[in-house]
Specification:
- It is a single chain.
- The chain is an alpha/beta fold.
- It has a single domain, classed as Rossmann fold (3-Layer(aba) Sandwich).
- It has 7 helices and 9 strands, in the order E-H-E-E-H-E-H-E-E-E-E-E-H-H-H-H.
- The protein has a 9-stranded mixed sheet, with helices on both faces.
- Helix 1 packs parallel to helix 7 and helix 2 packs across helix 3.
- The termini are close together.
Length: about 240
């Protein structure tokens, strides 16, 4: 049975629907809960892939949060070994940083439901081909990144030029969230209530959007994450 490392930075940002895709392919999970003080693995070992989830810290805060350096080293090793990689939100920023791209604060935070437009390259991408564009995704980020050198841009939004990218045939970064469930969204609104207040945003508007926007987003995520899980199975360990 294939196994992958999953790095989780905060209790409310779980795998969500990604877990269903992994289970469907018989892939087991080795979780590393950074928020609980668990240590980042020093090497990929026999793991077939790596998922790095979101969190409320910045890539540029490595002096304050040394575990970020450890994560970048692990991502670099996974890249060298051509293991399957999926970075979500903060995870996509860490993947971009590992590939030499600059990660900075954006002009404004992108929180809530906003359209995402796929690139022409996405139309032929193994994960994204056949997905209708644009679609409304769930967002919660204040940081942005440049497209890493050698990577393929897959998606953008009005506020953020680089929302998704692929590097090689095995590494993907998604800044937006497709893995979310009603519970995850509710937990994030509650956990980050102060941030919403500081941004002058109403969490109820985000929650109200789940009825219209979450079902189609889940459908897209089921396809994309299912394809990524199959990628894990096909790449040599």
């Amino acid at each position: 049975m294939a196994a992958i490392w999953v790095i989780q930075h905060i209790h409310c940002e779980t795998l969500g629907t990604i877990a269903e895709a992994l289970d469907g392919e018989g892939i087991s999970i080795q979780s590393v809960r950074v928020f609980a003080g668990e240590q980042i693995p020093k090497e990929m070992g026999a793991a077939a892939g790596l998922i790095v989830m979101g969190g409320p810290v910045g890539v540029y805060e490595q002096d304050r949060y040394p575990f970020l350096r450890d994560e970048i080293r692990l991502i670099e090793q996974a890249l060298t070994e051509k293991k399957a990689i999926l970075g979500v939100c903060l995870g996509s920023q860490l993947l971009a940083a590992a590939l030499g791209a600059k990660v900075t604060k954006g002009k404004q935070k992108e929180i809530g439901w906003y359209p995402v437009t796929l690139s022409r390259a996405a139309m032929a991408d193994p994960l994204w081909k056949g997905i209708e564009s644009p679609f409304t995704a769930y967002h919660w980020h204040g940081d942005v990144f440049e497209l890493p050198r050698g990577a393929e841009a897959l998606a953008s939004s009005a506020l953020t030029p680089c929302q998704a990218f692929r590097y090689g045939d095995h590494a993907y970064g998604f800044l937006f969230h497709m893995e979310v469930t009603e519970k995850i969204i509710g937990d994030m609104v509650q956990t980050f209530a102060q941030e919403l207040q500081e941004e002058g945003m109403d969490g109820r508007r985000i929650l109200d959007g789940t009825g219209n926007f979450l079902p189609p987003l889940k459908s897209i995520g089921k396809i994309v994450f299912g394809r990524w899980a199959r990628l894990v199975r096909t790449l040599p360990i």
